[in-house]
Amino acid sequence: MHADPRSAHDPSSPVDGEAGEPSRAVPADLRRLFRTAPFVAAAAPIAYGVALYYAALQVEHLDPDAKTGNLAMINALGAAAAMVAQPIVGVLSDRTRSRYGSRRPWMLAGALIGSAALLTSGLTSGLAALTVCFMLVQFGFNAFQGPFSALLPDRVPERLRGRFSTGVGLGVVLGSALGPILGSLFADAIAVGYAVLAGAVLLGIVLFVALVPDRDNRGEPRRPFSARAFLAAFWVNPVRHRDFFWGFTGRILLFGGYTMLSTYQLYLAQEYIGLSLDDAARTVPLLGLVALPAIIIATAIAGPLSDRIGRRKPVVLGAGLLISLGAVIPLALPTVPGLALSQFVVAAGFGAFVSVDQALMSSLLPNPDDFGKDLGVLNLAATLPTTVAPVLAAGIVHAFGGYGALYPAVGVITLLGALAVLRIRSVR
Fold first, then answer.
1. Who has greater pLDDT, 169 or 104?
2. Could you give the count of Cα atoms lying within 13 Å of 2 in the half-sphere of its Cβ?
3. Bridge-partner residues for 15, per DSSP?
4. Could you say which DSSP state residue 102 is in?
5. Alpha helices in 156-189 (DSSP H)
């Protein structure tokens, strides 16, 4: 889909006085998008956080001795479903022509599938059924996120992408932190928690789709869907598009390290810190509250700073280094305060990273006619770690005989992710 000519072409954008520089003001036709995007950006992370928090509790209740491996399996299969959803729905949304535009129908369909799966997760009683529901949660909300991500290159001009990415990034990291907190309110009534939060997430997405209309694009040309297009949904040539490759690599390493910690947070609190299951179930969501100030401050600073200085890479590099530093704090402080400090530093780094990541990556997309598809491939870097990272983390735990080994592993992985951004040449 071609970008909206009203918003994507900077040369026609308003300019400031005599300097002739592009205006920083948000055009009137984009203000509702900018105001509501941070809220709807939190929807999918809340759903993932709720599903993961409850799944960890359900898995432990089903078989305490096999909890690590079972949770890794559920996450791996769920992420496999996510990997299928984003690129394919990206290809389909690029080719969709309707009175409601190309993105909104797919966003709504994904939200319906994911919310229905969340609701059903609370009614399951076995590992197999829980795994299928978790896969559908991942598939549905990733089907929503792909078209939602494409709104940035579709509609937001380059000069405002840092600001938009900041708002979306703030929504993402706040949603990730709030998911377990909201889930913990219903820890003694998991089925009710699933139902309430599924309804809330779906309502938020429906309101966004209704309040932020897209233009009727039925008159635009459309390339036919083919088997080649289907297979191409999973591929961008790393030789021809080296910067895209390095952006993908940095993203997958940073998301991977973050996922390794967040997936096993409940078990780390038990096995490494020494808390009981009940204490860990209460403490882990509270760590999200500790992280909120760090997320808000880092996100509020990083995105606007990258716009002001006209540079994305230094902010992403600094964010990755913060994540790496925060990951190893529990090695020196294996206590609840140590976990809280680690969560604070990691959250600051991840907040800064996510606030600039979308703006950086949107500048690396190879083809303006394939924004949905290319963002689907790029978003694999966020979903693929949820397949690999839990399995890798489980292997590290078993190989080294304890959860403490995860901390240095995450420190190294995220450090490499931070350094990968230095290889990008086309964006400063």
1. 104
2. 11
3. 22
4. S
5. 161-184
